[in-house]
Write a structure and sequence with these properties.
With 177 residues, the chain is of the alpha+beta class. The protein contains 4 helices and 10 strands, in the order E-H-H-E-E-E-H-E-H-E-E-E-E-E.
């Protein structure tokens, strides 16, 4: 039987942290320590089948800047580390995890994520929209374009946002988006 639970990082047991990290390594060939660090500090949706952890997703708070350096600051719930045990894909488990995270949208101006090519159909089917404008990061040295991320950023909510505007995320080590 499938069950999901929302839990803050501070209440995620050491065993669950280890299982989630192992799941990330099983699901992705290039999941780094920076990627793992990005998933911590917010809320985690864990999915279990008959008590065994089979999926995970995290929502962490970030700031996005819309429209350039003098633009509008958005309180963003950023989705990180979404994965399903590779032996359990296409069973609705990832949708259950995302439903938990999407249920937190009212606390933010917008939800956002950076999708792999494989994840695009999943997120688009859930109503996420491609950010069409150019992307950047507000780095310690200032505004830096991130053209390698263009076409991979998706948002949910924020219906008044211009999806063609420039958007920047806050700085962090590793992949900034």
């Amino acid at each position: 039987m499938l069950s999901t639970e929302l839990v803050p990082t501070a209440r995620l047991s050491a065993a669950d942290r280890e299982q989630v990290r192992d799941l990330m390594d099983a699901a992705f060939t290039d999941f780094s320590d920076h990627d793992w660090a990005h998933a911590l500090g917010g809320l985690h949706s864990t999915a279990r089948v008959d008590g065994v952890l089979v999926a995970h997703g995290a929502l962490v708070q970030r700031r996005l800047l819309l429209g350039g350096v003098d633009g509008r600051s958005l309180r963003c719930g950023y989705v990180e580390a979404v994965a399903v045990d590779p032996t359990r894909c296409r069973q609705g488990i990832g949708s259950a995890v995302m439903a938990d995270l999407e249920g937190l949208a009212e606390g933010y101006d917008v939800l956002a994520l950076s999708s792999s090519a494989a994840g695009v159909p999943f997120y688009e089917a859930r109503g996420w929209h491609l950010w069409r404008g150019p992307s950047a990061v507000l780095a310690p040295t200032g505004w830096q374009d991130t053209p390698e991320e263009d076409g991979a950023i998706y948002v949910l909510g924020g219906t008044d946002l211009d999806l063609d505007a420039a958007i920047a995320c806050d700085w962090r080590e590793g992949d900034v988006w």
